[in-house]
Amino acid sequence: MKTILISHGPFSKGLSETVQMIIGEQEDLFFLGLFPEDSVETLEKKIEEIIWKYEDEEILVFTDLYFGSPFNAVNKLMGRYPLYHVTGINVPLLLEAVSMMRCGKNAEEISEAVVEKAAESVVDVRKQLLDLLSEEENQ
Asked: Which helix or strand (DSSP H or E) is residue 96 part of?
């Protein structure tokens, strides 16, 4: 399985570098960014080049923003290629996905698990601490 991270600007590169710093090099992880000088059509071509190169493998794509240009580029390609696509990616979710890949899970299983875990990846820490203090006071 190949995984492509696609974002506005260098975010996808940062995600890739962060995950690899934590769990080691990932040779099946690619990243692409859409920059102000790029067109969506250019981004689509770059995505397609990766797809063509690995057409016999499952391809899981993560984008940064629901209905953003990278999201739209991938959705357009989904009409021609059997891509798995999850949007709203962040470091904890990507770590989960890469860990599952290492365990032999397929793209569909990973997509489902990442979406289920999404709510856990954003935490209001102040509220959590206040709730914890309140629980301790009531004991």
From this structure: helix 91-102
Say whether pTM exceeds 0.70: yes
59-63 sheet: strands from edge to edge: 29-34, 2-8, 59-63, 83-87
Q: Each residue's pLDDT tens digit in the chain (139 positions)?
A: 999 999 999 999 999 999 999 999 999 999 999 999 999 999 999 999 999 999 899 999 999 999 999 999 999 999 999 999 999 999 999 999 999 999 999 999 999 999 999 999 999 999 999 999 998 888 8
Inter-CA distances, 33 with 39, 63, 83, 136, Å: 11, 10, 18, 46
- Give me the domains of the chain, ranges plus CATH numbers: 2-137 (3.40.50.510)
Judge whether 34 and 58 are in contact, CB under 8 Å: no
Q: What is the DSSP letter of 35?
A: -
Q: Is the dihedral of CA 2, 93, 81, 101 positive or negative?
A: positive
